[in-house]
Amino acid sequence: MAAKDSKPFWRHIYGFRSVTTWKMVVASILYFGVVVIGITGALVFSLNSKAAAGSDDNRPVITNGQLPDVKVNPDKYAGYPAILVGKIFGPTSVDGDHIIFQMWGDPKIADYDLAIEGPTSSPAVEGGEYVRVTGHIGCKATGTSGVNAKNTAIDINADKVERISSIDDLAPIKVKREFQRAISQFGYEITLKSVEFTDTETRVYLAVKNETGQKIKFYPGDARAIQAGTKFKSETACNYPGIQSEMLPNGLSEGVVVFGALDPNEPVEFHFEGSCQGYSENFQPYIFVVNDDGN
Question: 132, 114, 112: which is closest to 122 by C-alpha?
């Protein structure tokens, strides 16, 4: 039968077995250092983990205004949170529990191709609709777009997809002025209904009525705005309802003519052109003056 070990437990620890003072001092210092290093390492790891977990929250949210930078170097922004609005082009498709489509981040010039993959729990959307996408920037993807052209798109991993109004969300109204001003020549009448000033564009809402008895023409491409001595040409209004360029007798057409950003605090003149088949008289420009006081 083995004899019972009567030594205390600390006598079994290296450095304490011989009960030599200097050995026990050295061993104590070494063991204490190991404990300190272990605790310090654990704290550093914990802090780094928290910082990494919170790094996404500290990244700025990418919006449409930052898309030029993202387009140049999408990999730099991979993982950044994003809230983007745009117009879907091409077909949408469903792959399992994901909806996949492409949209223009700038529908006015058909630029900033965004490849969206979002949850099917989002509202059903289709080509031509405007949406707001909330999610994260993915990587750069090269392939064939919905219009059968080779291009480079920016992947967006969407958490939510919402259908939106193009006017309210693509260019929010800063100042809106409403009118009912009509100018008529030989039965060709143009009515200024309202003007919306935004940070990126100015939208002029018109109604054109034909009571001439002949076919008339309206020329949105010849429209001009004059402010502080500077002339502004009209821009393509593909995002908004346009006015018919030709109209039969007794016809009425309402729509939007778009200009660049104008100052709502300065007077502005809007010039519109038209003609009428069968009239030898020259139509004068339809000129509407909008003052800074809204009159």
Answer: 132
How far is 123 from 167, CA to CA, in rounded Å? Answer: 20
pLDDT tens per residue, range 282-294 = 789 999 999 866 5
Rounded Cα–Cα distance for residues 84 and 31 (Å) = 57
Q: 86-123 pLDDT, tens per residue? A: 899 988 888 888 899 999 988 877 888 999 999 887 77
Buried b (16+ CB within 10 A) or exposed e, 231-243: ebebbebebbebb
> Which candidate, 205, 202, 191, 190, places its Cα nearest to that of 259?
202
What span, in angstroms and rounded, lies between the C-alpha atoms of 39 and 58? 28
Q: Can you give the pLDDT at residue 96?
A: 84
Max mean pLDDT among 8-17, 138-147, 165-174, 235-244 falls in 235-244
For the entire predicted model, the pTM comes to: 0.56
Instruction: Match domain 64-169 to its CATH number in 2.40.50.140, 1.10.760.10, 3.30.870.10, 2.115.10.20.
Output: 2.40.50.140
| Nearest-angstrom CA–CA distance, 188 and 276 | 8
Tell me, what's the pLDDT at 95?
85
What are the sequence ranges of the domains in the chain? 64-169, 171-290
Domain covering 171-290, topology: Immunoglobulin-like (2.60.40)
